Amino acid sequence: MDAMIRLLQLLVLLLTLPLHLMVLLGFWQPLCKTYFPYLMAMLVTNTNRKMESKKQELFHPLKQLMETSGKVTLLELGCGTGANFQFYPPGCKVTCLDPNPNFKKFLTKSMAENRHLQYERFVVACGEDMKQLADGSMDVVVCTLVLCSVQSPKRVLKEVQRILKPGGMLLFWEHVAEPQGSWAHKWQHILEPTWKHIGDGCHLTRETWKNLENAGFAEVQMEWQPPPFKWLPVGPHIMGKAIK
Question: In this structure, are residues 80 and 98 in contact, taking their beta carbons and an 8 Å threshold?
Fold first, then answer.
């Protein structure tokens, strides 16, 4: 079976040979960093409409926290275009972090459309090294469809723990690998070497629930969801919160 997977990976590589040649020659990454924000901006309206009820459920603890404490300092990790802003309660102090500076103009637009929030700053950095953010400075970290594309989920979660206040929350929504042994899981392995270039580093086969469970949080609450888009190779999603 492994031999068949490698053969099919090679077939996909041949069918997408121009892409892989551009990667090899160093042309693809700069191009991807430029076009990817535009792609995300095109998809955000449809995605938010489809996932509206789930996002409202995910971010409901923010409303509760705002009602009890009167203020919330929030870091959006891998903020992208600011697709989650509309779901945050009024008065949240939002810091945005993303390694791609080309998202800035889309963030500016989202900020203008969501004036119920207080925006602190946009930090250009990767999640594995957030040295610009102080220890224990955030009440909440939001991470949606981000851990699939970072280099090291383990290091990112370690940094999240560092910047969260005691009792602080990580709110997460991530796609993960299909069940091992399934044909869907095999197809994810077949497509992943090409998909990660198209999706700006997105990995299809990560078992992110294990990273969350082993990150040392005091409590992890997690709900499994079926893939929202059947025509994409991304697998089931996990949604929930982790308490420091």
Answer: yes
- The string of pLDDT tens digits covering residues 131-184 is 999 999 999 999 999 999 999 999 999 999 999 999 999 999 999 999 998 999
150 neighbors 208 (Cβ within 8 angstroms) = no
**Do the Cβ atoms of 147 and 172 come closer than 8 Å?**
yes
The CA distance from 7 to 241, in Å, is 40
The DSSP element (H or E) to which 225 belongs, if any, is strand 219-225
Please provide the average confidence, as pLDDT, over all residues in the chain.
94
Alpha helices in 100-238 (DSSP H): 104-113, 153-163, 183-198, 208-213
What is the rounded distance in angstroms from the CA atom of residue 181 to the CA atom of residue 56? 33
Asked if residue 134 lies in contact with residue 159, where contact means CB atoms within 8 angstroms, the answer is no
pTM of the model: 0.94
